[in-house]
Batch of 2 targets.
Target 1
Amino acid sequence: MSDFLNVSSSLTGRRWVGPSIEIDRSAEALEQNTTLPRALCQVLARRGIPAHEAENFLAPALRDLLPDPRSLKDMERAATRFLEAVKHKQKIAVFADYDVDGGSSAALLLVWLRAMNLSATLYVPDRIDEGYGPNETAMSDLAAAHDLIICVDCGTLSHAPIAAASAADVIVLDHHLGGETLPDCHAVVNPNRQDEDGALAHLCAAAVVFLMLVEANRQMRGEGAQGPDLMAMLDLVALATVADVAPLVGVNRALVRQGLKVMARRERPGLVALADVSRMDTAPSSYHLGFLLGPRVNAGGRIGQADLGARLLATADPHEASALAERLDHLNTERRDIESAVRAAAMEQAEERGLDAPIVWAAADGWHPGVVGIVASRLKEATNRPAIVIGFDGDEGKGSGRSVSGIDLGASIQKLAAEGLLVKGGGHKMAAGLTVMRDQLEPAMARLAELLNKQGAGDMGPADLKLDGMLMPGAASLDLINQLEAAGPFGAGAAAPRFAFPEVEIRFAKRIGDSHLKVTFSDGLAARLEAICFGAYDTAIGPALENHGGKRFHLAGRLDINTWGGRQSVQLRLEDAAPA
């Protein structure tokens, strides 16, 4: 594939890759057979959408895409036991992971039960004292006081802790990779069980919980009863899906689209309070879920009190919601400061070790377990390599990993655990968690590098910048952005449309804050467009465009709507540039 606009190494060192000949032909056919603009046709063609499917793709109906819950093993059994507990007013405990997916999953159950005038005990383990997932002490204590324990976003590998809960029935609603055997409990509903076909492997835990509630409502209807309104709960499913970086394809895309509409109604006190402390002033988008709301919900589990996020999402009390949101906002600011220090130290260590190995990793004493996952994400983004970051407390280290597309990190971590190099470990393709003893650190990382190298992780250069085509400044209108949004939401597995603006003149360039750049550019004629480049001075983009000397550049990025003082304008979120 030839370099797009002949850019083989941009100012960020990336090769630009444009649409293939096949995609261009498909886009042409879409343009001829629909009334859609060419830019949108390019995006649809990249997603493999033919002309006869375009209309349905741009307006996905959840009823057409929602799978039959019973297609998942143990689902009917799980919903039946759940309803039995509801009918007999048995004591229910919800054991949830401390991240957004876990909190949203727990909130779904608590909100559903509250609509039935019932309640449940919420238990979220402390990240530092208890670690991820069920533990024997907590499960035994919960079983002694409850009839049913529902583990959400965890539990699939928790054989011993679930065995310790023998005094109660246990249901697992999860999505993490399953092992060769399942824990001995009433039901394990997980699209990533080894005996599942993988058709729903992309669901997050909250989507699995939602499907169980769909099945529960269906069973209730069969008995002539009416269950709670599930459509009104899709805001929680959307938040979890985006924050857990589940691919926005198939039913996930429909769940998030519908969930964003529900969220825009501002009916859930916790999300309203969270949006307000996040200073969200426009309709919610997947960007808001992933970068404003999600990190704040996560902050409690990272460095504060583990159950704050779930409580915020579940509460019906606006006053409690406001107090919890304020607390999470403060914790998120604190988390950013801790993360910044760990990130600088981890990057320095990783650079000393070398950034061209199949795995980039860093480990040190005292790094907060609540931020190692985020720092691993930053290392991954900077190097286009799978990354692991580990914080040690004494001889035990707790770490988190993030992967790149095409490299299954979770399976490799699970293999390390099976080989005895880790105390424990698991996850999914793009993310994993692990516990390792100090004396096993070097052997474990060496073995992990070996496993990932077999998948091709050692051969990856800087990530190519994939572009949907070219645009001229005059074509970048609010109408076009709104039309492109119909192909969304965008995120994991569904990259936002990116366009190149060729051979433009830089009319204005100004540094904003420490590292950002504001630019106005033109095609040399009348049309002009404004752009913002975050972190421009962390790369060669900032100095090159600020000191352009009249030279022309190719600019690339995503179109955005900038809202200021109640007025909307088109803005390019500049991601890369190259001399023309």
Target 2
Amino acid sequence: MILPMARVEVLGPRDLLPRALELLQVRGAVELRPAPAAARPAAPLPGAPERAVRLSEAVRQIDALAGRLPPARGEAAPLELPEPGTQALLDRLAALESELARIEARRAALAEEREATARFARLVVALAPLTHGVDPAAEPELHGLVLRSDPAALALLESEVRRLSGGACEVKARPLDAEHTGVLVVVPRAAGRALTALFFERGVDEVRLPPAYGGRRLLDVLLLLSARARALPDEIAAADAALARVAAGLAPALARARTRAEGELARLQAMGSCGETRFAFVAVGYMPADQVAALRAAVAAELGDRLTVLAERPGRSEWSQVPVVLRNHRWLRPFERLLALVSLPRYGSVDPTPWLALFFPLFFGLVLGDVAFGAAGAAVALWARRRGWGGRVGRDLAWVALWCSAASALFGLLYGEALGELGVHLGLHPLLLDRRRGFMAFLGGVLALGGVHVLLGMGLGVGSALRERHLREAVGRGAKLVLLVAAAAAAAALAGKLPPAALRPALFGTVGALAVAVAAEGPMAALDLVLGLGNVLSYARLMALGLASAMLAEVANLIAGTLEPAPVGIAISVLLHAVNFSLCLISPIVAALRLHYVEFFERFYEEGGEPFRPFALDA
């Protein structure tokens, strides 16, 4: 149902406006609207623009910090941050950002060193047996390279190195694997800068040894690298632990500060929608009518009789502006998700959720109609709900799927089907109809159900017009409803489904209803008879989809029983049943939604409702 709303006005002394807004925000029950034109917009508080800028910047910095924090582990001392909207908070956030950046930089440096150490160790293991003949007095520098195995490139490299160092160098290489070669280049310190520039110009990746390893023997370097490789994981773990400790204390504080900052920013912005006079203010909005008493009690407890809450039912002229709240029984609430493809119903109109909850599973089961498929669908739906797949939306859709699966299993019993005709071998027999053979009766039943569905929509349309006191529209809609019923009765009498005596009253009813409809809505109302019959015939698609599913199941069973060798036939049959099940998860959903949106809703549904957005603190 669409929850009844109340138009509320909160009035009080002008100096209480900030406290009143804070109270309304904490209660979270009123959607604020612009104040009446008779009251001028409330003036902002002194310093409010500058404070709003600081609040926005604080929210931006908090979001940036929170996005960089790892998941919190363990407990930490609670951290208190300065009041939102102050420069002290911005300064504290900047200091926290610097501290976090320092820890992150340390952690990144350790990770980079671990990767480099692994590369150093691989190269040094290959080159450790090699020695060089560069004079120690020249302070030799060691440069390591990993190149693709190419003798010509190695020869060119050696000639360039000798040119730069004046021949005082050593270039030695050893294969690392089938494609790569490790190269050790030893030059005097005086030639080291030129050699590095050469590597950069030629795009050669140098495996740079840390400065602490310079001047040592390669065997000593290998021992140092091994020791460092053992120490680095502990240092990285310590850095991660430091980040986790910071997150444990900082994340809750940032969340609290963000909530407070956004709340105050929203209050500053909400003041613009309030009105004021020289001594008083007024805040106007809409809220659920059943919450007005609770709001009045909260206002009285907080501010006594200094604030007044006036409430009244919205007039029909403003129904198009009233926000919409749908409130249905918890068993029906998941079916509200099926309205996601259309706008909310306008306030004062009809909520179709209960009818969706009745007819959508009915149409789905009418098409699928198989005990085995229904059991499989129910198992999947229960598994999805238990695993919490998709959060709240997923649980709601799984609930809808569960009811659709139950309807499929029920119709499977009525049709006597379980994986098609296999149900007969399991002792199933049609309790109502064998749709594979009695397809004309199946078509008649589907069209009868479609007629009921369309007529129900027309009846809801009549009630909606009466509720809005559009009497001429209500008469026209009622006449078209009678016109469709009388025409269907006349057709049934001509087909021998009703006694011949029913033909004359049905014809008189058709002519009379047509005359009333034309008088109420004009000549175009006569077309509604044709459109209505077309709407009813659209439900024949349910029979077509159902028969297609049943025939595909029969084909699968026939292949399993006749194709040789038997394992191949069974495998193809299982595949066809799986394809049939997959198609039946899509086709009935699309068909049932279309029949509701096009054939059913057009008779009464008035879209254009806006969701209720209360002035509240974000959870």
